[in-house]
Amino acid sequence: MFITFEGIEGCGKSTQAKLLCQWFLDRGREVVLTREPGGTPAAEELREFILKEREEYFPPFSELALYIAARGFHAENLIKPALKEGAVVICDRFSDSTLAYQGYGRGLSTKLIEEMNREATGGLKPDITFLLDLPVEVAFERIKERKKDRLESESLEFHRRVREGFLEIAKKEKDRVVVIDGTKSPEEVFKDVLKALKERFGAL
User: CATH number of the domain at 2-198, out of 3.40.50.300, 3.20.20.70, 3.30.750.24, 3.30.420.40?
Assistant: First the structure.
């Protein structure tokens, strides 16, 4: 089973991914908890390059190409082998993030991004995706104290476009994407995650 968590910065997806990982471990399941960009040594190096604050202009297509390259390493060298071995793979961000950030946020062609994602992953898609949705202002109030990376430092208007992108993806892929109210407490959000998971896949 391949499960992903998506949403804007500060939505709580990393927390929920860890909680769900522990839930599966407590039930004796083999679980791989990973993230994007990253997950393998090469992909983690690309993550550091992508998210680093820099003076030089970072062209949107160059940004897209690096995310896609990192995803290729991740899908082929970690996710697919783990799924083949029967593990549950839980990923903090996947291809939906690239569509939301570089497509809706940066204005690049969503068709091009979808094609590049397919090439990088061989058509791999999550079995279920949890989109933790909340207003941008609420999310950024949560992360105001932490040091922000290059993407987190973008304008609120950029992040509003990203949020709308995620919601558009959810509308188009209702069978895969479950929208969860991210304004709730972590405990309440996790209950909603488990409820949706059990409704889709039974007793697991």
Answer: 3.40.50.300
